[in-house]
Structure formats: structure tokens, C-alpha cells
User: What shape does this take?
Amino acid sequence: MFKSIFTLLAIFIVAQLSSQNEQLNVTSNFNGFHCDGKPGLCTIDPAQRSMDSNSTLTFNSNVSVTLCINRNKLSDLEFFNLFSFERPLLDTKKSYHFDVPADLQLSNPMPTTPANESIRIHKGNYPIEITDQYFILTFSTN
Assistant: This one.
């Protein structure tokens, strides 16, 4: 009886762990869509150390990724390049969107993608979810 319960518990834990989405510490650069200093997303690169990252990237499925940006780790310029206005003007009761004007190929394959495949974020206007600690964007991909 004890052995059966232990086996079922082990199977449940393995199933839960394998169903969770892959998450990676990354550094998001909001230095313009063409990395030209204008508002927009320039790059998302894997962080060498978690303390170096300003975001996490979660691989939801083959169709989307979620970027959680730590609000406290964004400089005033990065904030401006994300929202196109200065930080004091943020109204958490309003809804905001982030424009990706053309498909964006991430510069580096992410270690947790299948066979280190590249990720392409599709052109679109994506809602920005705002929490006390994060700005959250979910992009459609590949």
C-alpha cells in the first residue's frame, strides 16, 4: 500500500514538473526596434547570471513567449523606450500596448528552446500587463 502511494506521488510530481513552462533569465534591451535609440525592443539575450537580468522569458508553447520585465531594473531611458513617455506619467489604471512594427528575430538562440532554435516574435500590438513588480508582455512566435 505504502509503495503504491509513493509511486503515484512520484508520478504526479514528475508530471507536474514536466508540464511547467521553461523560464530563462534574460536581459531585455529597449534601445529601439533597430537598436537606434528610439522607443522599441532591440534585443532579448540570455543573462550570464540572474543578478544581471532585468527580465525573464517564459516559453509557453510553440506559439508564444512571455516577457516579465522587472520594473525596478529598468532605467528611466529604458522605461521611456518601452512606453514612449516618462515614468511619472504611468497610470496603472490605464491599458497600454507595445508595438512590434515587424517580425523580430531574437539575436541568440535560447538555451531552453528545442535544439537551440531561434525565436521570431511576430509583428503586432501587444498589451502590457502591469503588476506592482513587473511589466508583462506575451508575444506570438514562430
About this structure: Residues 2-20 have pLDDT under 50 and may be disordered. The chain has two helices and nine strands.
